[in-house]
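note to self — DONT lose this again. spent like an hour looking for the file last time. sequence + predicted structure for the chain T wanted, 299 res
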Amino acid sequence: MDGTVLRTYLEVIESGSLIGAARRLNVTQSTVTARINSLEQEIGQKLIHRNKSGTELTSAGFKLKRYAEVMLQLWRQARFETSLPKGFVNVCNLGCEFDLWRDIGTRLLAHMARHTPDVAVAAWPGEQRQLDRWLNIGLVDMALCYAPQPGGNFATHILFDDELVLVKRAASPADPKRDGLKQSGYIYVDHGDEFRRQHAIAFPGDETPAVTLASADWALDHILRHGGSGYLPMRHARQSLAAGKLREVEDAPRFKRRIYVVANTQATAQWDWFEGAITILRQGEPVGGGGKEPRRTRR
């Protein structure tokens, strides 16, 4: 069975529509439709109901889903292992939250390049729910994330607390603390549930911002290009602050967001480089309230 067809099938399920799957795969909707039709013909049953609001799995489609996930993972792993260049002995499959690549994912990659030149690395960006699924089906061996979910034989390692600071473009005359969030061109950067709660307490009664972004990188780019203000991890803002392109807003509250590594213990038992990599990553920022020992969970 064609792995491309299985991947398309799973993307339709994940996105909830043929259009969404086409966008994720960077193909036309007709291509997605043709692949799903060929899969249904091969199985001999209808797998997906298509309607105006999106797609829904049939009973047969629901049963096929878990097999498709396993088959695709096995195919990817087999292809990856059999195509390793000469001199490589293993591969580390890494999942990473989008905003954790800067200074964390890149630092991990640099550490491995220096200390484990015989280990290949494959990295995929994803949201938390995608990372959880990839860990559960074995698509990735470890993940850099903000909100690890319990279950299975995995170890959860605390790295450090991301410090979220309110910054504005240096040339911007408006001050969020003086003029209000809306008047200052405030960009609401969605840093998760705990940030939403803390933000609501710190800024009660403020109007909903005109722009909400779910990526610190997007927000940084927007503020530098168009002005305004917003909460960014210090990791993202530090270089622009040092260059005088951004200014931290005085007296604004700071917030924290904890960063974790979740890793498959069967994989890490064979990685003599893993503990050293965790130590290097923890040196990026101070860990709040301890957290030196990994907290083991059952996934």
